[in-house]
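Retro notes (design track)

What went well: tokenization of the new backbones is finally stable.
What didn't: we kept losing track of which sequence belonged to which structure.
Fix going forward: every design gets posted as structure first, then sequence, in one message. First example under the new rule, 408 residues:
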């Protein structure tokens, strides 16, 4: 039975808010005959609180769906300041103290991993995994979720000459250069990582679990047209643009109702911004298993991002592909690959980011679109989910890829 270590500080299980890609990949690999150990932080990124550990616990091991899951204590934080750096560094310290000795001991007990897979962010944790791999000869796979440190430049306003950015860029180059393979979630990221040294790459995007996100009929015609955004409420999501569009629609006496589901550092400010609007509601984040029922109540699903250059390389948003599988028209404000995919496949409507007039127009246009055409959008989305983004298909490809590395 091949053994895999899967490391991602922000990995979640389905009952927690946040992405569950590592859980989904791990459970699939277990079904393919792998022994999988996952190492993640117990401090939930969205809720900013511990979920399992109680002082003075530093770790906890659980068996979840056949996975050996280790929850690690990290330094808490509530804002993106110096405490966030301590949060990441404390996770790295765990990896040094736990994984290094475990590999050495595993050599004698037969419990050392055959493969180490680290998913970014964050780069320092992946870098530690790389050097454990280099010192032990164990193949190393890097999964790229976000393009660090480029995200700090394009979204965070950092200068390319900033010492932290340069240090992370040095890590990034070594990771790309020495990884056995670099897995990217966004198709547009593949040339990016190749230009920076990656020799072997694979595109394995996010995708819906087709058992969980089975197609649902469109809601019956009703007095309001419900648009749901489900996801993070952060600076990158550009939700103030959504609120501005909602204000325009309300002034036009549109039937649009916008539900914003999730949490994040900008949520309270957004609530204040929309305090005078009757057609916008804010709701708490929900676990992954409840997302299908939530989305089923929508006439359309909204994906919103700010106009950040790095997003043009492509992103791989779970909620978009979940909407495809469920059979919902989408409205997107992501220039580049996402808007192009929606337009070329006629899956809904698009608008430029940070353009509330265009977004309001797109929402109203979809409201005015006949039901049979919205149904056709839904059917085309379902087909794309099955042929390209199916989680089952992607997990099978992951299994083949990883077994090939072991056999090489």
């Amino acid at each position: 039975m091949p053994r895999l270590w899967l490391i991602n500080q922000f990995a979640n299980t389905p009952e927690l808010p946040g992405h569950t890609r590592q859980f989904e990949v791990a459970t699939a690999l277990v079904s393919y005959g792998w022994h999988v150990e996952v190492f993640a932080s117990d401090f939930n990124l969205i809720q900013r609180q511990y979920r399992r550990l109680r002082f003075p616990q530093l770790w906890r091991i659980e068996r979840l769906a056949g996975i050996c899951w280790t929850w690690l204590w990290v330094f808490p934080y509530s804002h993106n300041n110096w405490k966030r750096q301590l949060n990441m560094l404390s996770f790295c310290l765990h990896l040094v103290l736990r994984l290094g000795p475990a590999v050495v001991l595993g050599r004698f007990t037969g419990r050392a991993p055959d493969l180490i897979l680290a998913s970014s962010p964050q780069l320092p944790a992946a870098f530690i995994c790389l050097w454990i791999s280099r010192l032990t000869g164990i193949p190393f796979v890097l999964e790229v979720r976000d393009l660090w440190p480029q995200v700090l430049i394009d979204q965070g306003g950092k200068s390319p000459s900033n010492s932290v950015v340069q240090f992370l860029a040095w890590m990034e180059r070594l990771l790309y250069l020495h990884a056995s393979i670099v897995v990217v979630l966004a198709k547009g990221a593949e040339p990016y990582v190749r230009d920076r040294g990656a020799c072997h790459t694979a595109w394995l995007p996010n995708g819906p679990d087709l058992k969980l996100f089975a197609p649902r009929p469109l809601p019956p015609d009703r007095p309001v047209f419900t648009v749901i955004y489900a996801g993070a409420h952060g600076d990158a999501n550009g939700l103030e643009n959504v609120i501005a569009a909602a204000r325009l629609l309300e002034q036009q006496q549109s039937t649009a109702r916008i539900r914003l589901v999730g949490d994040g550092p900008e949520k309270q400010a957004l609530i204040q911004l929309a305090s005078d609007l009757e057609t916008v509601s804010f709701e708490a984040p929900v676990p992954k298993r409840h997302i299908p029922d939530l989305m089923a109540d929508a006439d359309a699903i909204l994906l919103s991002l700010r106009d950040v250059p790095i997003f043009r390389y492509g992103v791989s948003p779970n909620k978009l592909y979940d909407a495809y599988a469920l059979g919902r028209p989408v409205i997107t404000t992501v220039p580049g690959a996402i808007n192009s995919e929606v337009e070329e496949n006629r899956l809904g409507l698009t608008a430029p980011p940070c353009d509330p007039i265009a977004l309001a127009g797109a929402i109203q246009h979809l409201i005015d679109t006949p039901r049979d055409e919205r149904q056709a959008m839904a059917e085309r989305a379902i087909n794309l989910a099955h042929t390209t983004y199916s989680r089952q298909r992607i997990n099978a490809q992951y299994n083949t890829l990883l077994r090939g590395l072991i056999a090489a």
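Added context from the reviewer: Residues 225-388 form a domain with the Rossmann fold fold (CATH 3.40.50.2000).
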